[in-house]
Amino acid sequence: MKKFFSFLIIISYLASGIVLAQSVTIVYDKSEPQSSYAAGKLSEALTEQKYEIASQDAGSDYTINLSLQKDKLAAEAFSIIPEGTVIAINGGDYSGLIYGSLALVEMLRNGTSLEEVKAIEEKPNLEFRGIKFNLPWQTYRPSSALDQHYETARDLKFWEAFLDMMVENRFNVISLWKMHPYTFMIKAKNFPEASPWSDEELAEWQHLYHEIFRMAKERALDTYIVHWNIFVSEEFAKAHDVAKENFYPHYYVPGDTSEIVKQYLRQSVTQVLEEYPNLDGIGISHGEGMAGMSPLERQQWVEDVIIAGMLEANRPFKLIHRVPFSSGTSSEPGVSKNVEEVTRQAMENLEDKFDGPIWVEIKFNWSHAHSTPALEKVHGGKLGDTYFVPEPKNYKITWQARNEDFFALRWGVPDFIRKHIELNGEASYVGGYFVGSETYIPALDYFTAVKEPVDWKWAFERQWLFYKLWGRLLYNPNTPDEVFQAEFNRRYGTKGDNFLKAYSLASSTQLRLASLYDSRWDFTLYSEGFLALQGDYTKYISVDALINQPTMAREYVSVKDYVETIQKGGSFGTDSVTPLVLINMLERDNREALRLVENIDVSGNASLMYEVADVKTWANLGLHLAEKIKGAVDLQTFRLTGDEEKKRSAIQHLEEALKYWDEVIKITRPIYLDMRLTHYNHNFFDANNDNLFHWALIRDEVARDIEIARNATR
Question: Which residues, at least 6 apart from 258, have a Cβ–Cβ distance to it below 8 Å?
């Protein structure tokens, strides 16, 4: 009788035109947190698409089986195999199982039904795909720009969302960076006086770290704490009258190698590894806090204290070994063959001591990896081949792709990342990449000015394209543009059709400025704001600074070199990016980007409005740069030749450059707050104690270029 009534109900639904929801059973190992996480994400997506989730002991229209196939698939690889009403998601390990599940989630959210699912298989191109995340408590550089993230970064909801983003984009390492992390994680057994916390306060900090590591492990992410040397807590320093400057907020300070400092730090390392079983490893540095020590002394100290402390922990762990930043006894940057040889030998002496290879971190193009994809320098200068020849056996290079160039504006140039990986990621001695910033934390959204609802809460969510491009392309550089374009369409429908191309064209402006204008450490360039360190101040790049600055990319030609060569009757090869070639590139690409978004109706959708506004902002910055280069070439030509027509032309081009800057202000003033920046000089922008930046705040600096040209003499 029950079956008869069920049959009548089905007939009545069909007669009324209502389609019954299809049911799905997900079969997985409930005892494993990674399998449960994968199944949970699938359940969410299926429910969103109006499927019903059935229990494993009930009948259903579809079955999705999650299983490991370590004998058939490589680590982190996955396959999706549909056979009738059964879909098998297989992983080479739990990472692969999660990636396969999230690949099906992506299909579902892009409109693919279970009936339409096609077989796919993917495997990782690079082993190490990490995020560099500087924590905002007692930060490396004291700054209101970093301190403002304090509460956000203590919110576990933030970390849940951030770690979700990471695994969705196939990053596999989260590294948490701090000068001295240990007092936030433990009360040292033999040095309780080092702790600044009450028992209740310490318990809160420990809960935060434990939960971050637990959630990371649930998502099959590796976790590291990375710190500088030699630093302690202020309480420890005062209690023992040692390390008198080796605590927050100091960082360029002498190394204190007293025995009690060694004991405290060595025991802290061991205790942290013992008390945090979900922490996978530790990263070490040979830089700040070690002034007055030779490179060999620094290496020996690290081995005697940090590595010795790690080896005393009774469990497997992993190591990030940053290459030395200094070749002398100061904290100033520098490279040398001798330091490279000492470091390599030290790492090779650690063979078989760690779980997997040692990850050797090297800053790509110093602090500005978003410039040219060719390796021009590392922290301190040119890198030799010591770390690569002969090929290492127990370590792998991991490039640190630092972003100190754009924090507010959305960015996305997929072909740049593909080229980066092609040039630098294919060698067998390369393990992968870090992606992240030193002077920016992607936590609190301190940019958004409009009151209308937007589809993000935290800062990293605004830069979803940046993370998606880097993560997915590090995993598989052959991932097609259609994958990224599909996300625009999921968010904005057909209005998103041209967004990926528009961003690729417009945000290339940043890459071109950073290739044209040579830079080194963090504050020497902030491309998004057209700021650079000039003397003791970080300020707008004047026309004179643009003329005289050498280039980062070897194929680029500076304005000064170009004008001098032309005036002497010289020429440049076809591969050279001269100022005139660069002008043409900027004008072509940015005008096309503006055309692609000019007719998009953004009314009623603040998130879409921001996407369009950022394309327009980058494009106008690019056209500003094109006019500025024209003005710079003419101004320098006038100074060499005395041609008054060139002076008049320079003034006109710089006036046009100001008009494009005014358009940037017009776009951004209503929608972007004044933004705090971390900068070396706290007198930045005259009495601007919070280092506030907005394009509108430096208009006078931009306009000053015109006066420079008007007042120019031969």
Answer: 242, 243
